[in-house]
Known about the structure:
This protein is of the alpha/beta class. It has two domains: 3-120, Rossmann fold (3-Layer(aba) Sandwich); 125-317 and 342-384, Dihydrodipicolinate Reductase, domain 2 (2-Layer Sandwich). It is 32% helix and 22% strand. The chain has twelve helices and 15 strands. Strand 3 (67-70), helix 4 (77-86) and strand 4 (90-93) form a beta-alpha-beta unit.
Amino acid sequence: MTAGIAFVGCGYVADLYQSALANWSETLELKGVYDRDPKRLKTFAKHYGLETYPSFDALLEDPEVEIVVNLTNPDEHYAVTKQALEAGRHVYSEKPLAMDLAEARELVELAADEGLHLVCAPSSALGEAAQTLAREVQSGAHGKPHLVYAELDDGMVHKIGYQNWKTASGAFWPAKDEFKTGCTIEHAGYALTWLVAMFGGVRRVVSFASCLVPDKGKDTPPDYDTPDFSCACLEFDNGVVARMTNSIIAPHDHRFRVFCENSVLEVGETWDYSGKVRVTPVPKSKMRRGAIKLLGMTGSRKIKPQSQRKISTAKRGYPMDFALGVAEMAEALQEGRAPRLAGEFSLHITEVSLAIQYPEQFGTDYRPVSAPGPVAAMEWRSEED
Length: 385
């Protein structure tokens, strides 16, 4: 049984969702799309052969639409999601829930009051690589986890030809919106969802953020001062501490490393849902430095995530299943349960992301209020090479 969904927003990210729908043909059925820009709507719909709605109201009046997928610009997330919830529709929103924490909390409370579900991207914590890593960490086989290093550095984006980043339907990467929103709001969720799914809610955020390159060329937004670098230390209830960086300055580095008592667990690319988990034993304290270095090179093993599916993705970009979160939401609704990342979980990711990017607003030593519950594991299998 498929769930009817509709896209609001036909820009750059819509292609990424559209290209991943093939992974869930038995779960999701795209009823139609809408964009406030008639030209963009026509181009996107024609390229993929999709039905269109003449207005957002018309979309919400379609009784076959169960889930509204909010793919608008971040500044519009709050208003679009609120209107969809008030119309009695479940919502899956691109990140963040809102650019203001009070508005994000209002949306979560509205959904609860209306008996609806609200989920926010990213859903990569449900992907094969993240689930394989979480299973290893939580198994206890590697000893107690102490520390996590999570990097999401993308290089100097303003110097690497983003002007040529174009989707299959012809949408260009929205540079001004990306710079204005900030790389932390755009990217922190990828590591945060992994961390919160494994260790529970963040209890303390100590952050520094700065705009290091205020002139990024012709696409620099007016009065641009959004941080293009952030570094935060996050503390969890169980004592685990994570250091997380986000930047569009430092060279590309998307590693996620968990330092346990007996092993170091590493995923080299958090945007690869099929990425392998490298396990390296912690060397004995009496070993010489040369032997310790050699062990790091030769003593590790890899665990490859295995599942019964082949992931379809957009031609441009990384092997990420953007439709996974929407599909999991649809399955949850059919099973009469809450989606794994719904409500308080999505609010927490938004709250912590905002606190990291804006320490001058939240304080450099911030204690999040939202408290997400445990996240049930997906049924992805893993096996060692």
